[in-house]
Amino acid sequence: MIFVHIGAGAGDLDPSSNYRDGFTEFVKKNLCGEKKIFIVEANPKNIKKLKECWKDFANVKIFNLAIIPNSYSKNKIKLYYSVDDQPHYQLLSHNKNFVERHFPKSEIKSIEIEAIKINDFLKNNLSNMKIDSFSLDVESLDYEIFMDINLEKYSIDNFSIEYFHLNKTQKKNIIKKFISNGFSYNGFGIDHNKLDWLFTKKKSSWNNMIAKTLPYIHRIYYKRLNKVIQKLKV
What we know:
With 234 residues, the chain is an alpha/beta fold. The chain has one domain (2-70, 114-232): 3-Layer(aba) Sandwich (Rossmann fold), CATH 3.40.50.150. It contains eight helices and twelve strands. The chain has helices spanning 22-29, 47-53, 96-102, 118-126, 142-148, 168-180, 205-211, 222-232, and strands spanning 2-6, 36-40, 60-63, 66-68, 76-82, 108-117, 130-131, 133-136, 155-156, 158-162, 184-188, 196-200. It has a seven-stranded mixed beta sheet, sandwiched between helices. Strands 4-6-5 form a three-stranded mixed beta sheet. The protein has a two-stranded parallel ribbon with strand order 7-9. Helix 1 (22-29) links the parallel strand 1 (2-6) and strand 2 (36-40). The mean pLDDT is 94.
């Protein structure tokens, strides 16, 4: 099985998140046979921890890169972080205002990171592969990057994407793209804080009818909708 995680942080070795990480927990608990794992993290401070996190897995590739939308022309990108977000500075974003909203009284610093367009990364590393689980969490660029991914070109069975910072229009566009490419909403994604949506490569009219309501309701009601999906068993 092939697992892809873009925006890995420090995996399950960050004390500020109580040593929890949804993707890491999901993969480590998965009892499938051979696993190939592709990990992408922009912050160089986290690479050592990620290597430690995945040291017991043979087929792991860890990339110290910033994934960017195809519209970006430069091969480096300036990312901002709060000095109070230590020790692993998980909230690393190209949008300074995005960081300031989360740390309004903190000193904000920046770092330049080598960057690669999402299509180039996929072409270089995952062409002609069947991806069992794809997770995207890149702090304020999730929408742009996702909309650039050709879901017809790449074989992806399950896609987990953070919805928490999306506006209504972005949510509608993401759901529309998933459904038009043969995916159906399947409840919460892999994030242990339940801030991700999961879409699975299958067609379910009931699930997608529910998905179309997501942009219009508060996330506190998502849990109830997901219980409906489980009862329908579709």
